[in-house]
Amino acid sequence: MAAQLYSNTQLAQALYEVLQELVGDGKVPEELAVATLDQLDQSILSALKNEIPAKSEVKGNLDTYKYYDNVWQFTLSNVAFKLNASGTGSLKKAPEVTCDKAKIVCVDIKLAPQ
Q1: Cα gap 112→109, rounded to integer Å
Q2: Where are the alpha helices (DSSP H) in the chain?
């Protein structure tokens, strides 16, 4: 069974709440709600791989890192993110977003739903 990579996102939580309400009101069968949630990871991963050409850059001070079961976790401080949404050209003129702390989780693609 593949890992549920995106199940803790705000999008997934909002979808779960809506489906729970629809099942409770008898408008959607429970089996369909479960199938919808199961499809979420596959759909998000597919969209990220095939529809998003963006390039990004992350700079910061590495505070901690962990590696366990093909999952890297990095905790950074004084972080700056740059994103070039078009995926072409330089990141020099890309807008920069900064934050005091950030956590980045990198998962081996083999764990993703196929």
Answers
A1: 5
A2: 10-24, 30-50
**Helices and strands counted in the chain (H then E):** 2, 3
Q: CA dist 47 to 7, 40, 65, 105, Å?
A: 15, 11, 28, 18
Residue 76 burial (C-beta neighbours within 10 Å; 0-12, 13-18, 19+): buried
Asked if 109 contacts 5 with a C-beta cutoff of 8 angstroms, the reply is: no
- Structure tokens, 42: 């596959």
Q: Between β-strands 71-84 and 55-68, what pairing exists: parallel, antiparallel or unpaired?
A: antiparallel
- The residues with which 98 forms a beta bridge, in sequence order, are 80
Phi and psi dihedrals of 90, rounded to 5? -85, 155
C-alpha distances out from residue 36 to 13, 42, 71, Å: 13, 10, 25
The verdict on pTM exceeding 0.70 is no
Digit-coded pLDDT (tens) for 38-53 = 888 788 878 877 877 7
Instruction: Let me know the angle formed at the C-alpha of 87 by 96 and 5, rounded to the nearest 5 degrees.
Output: 80
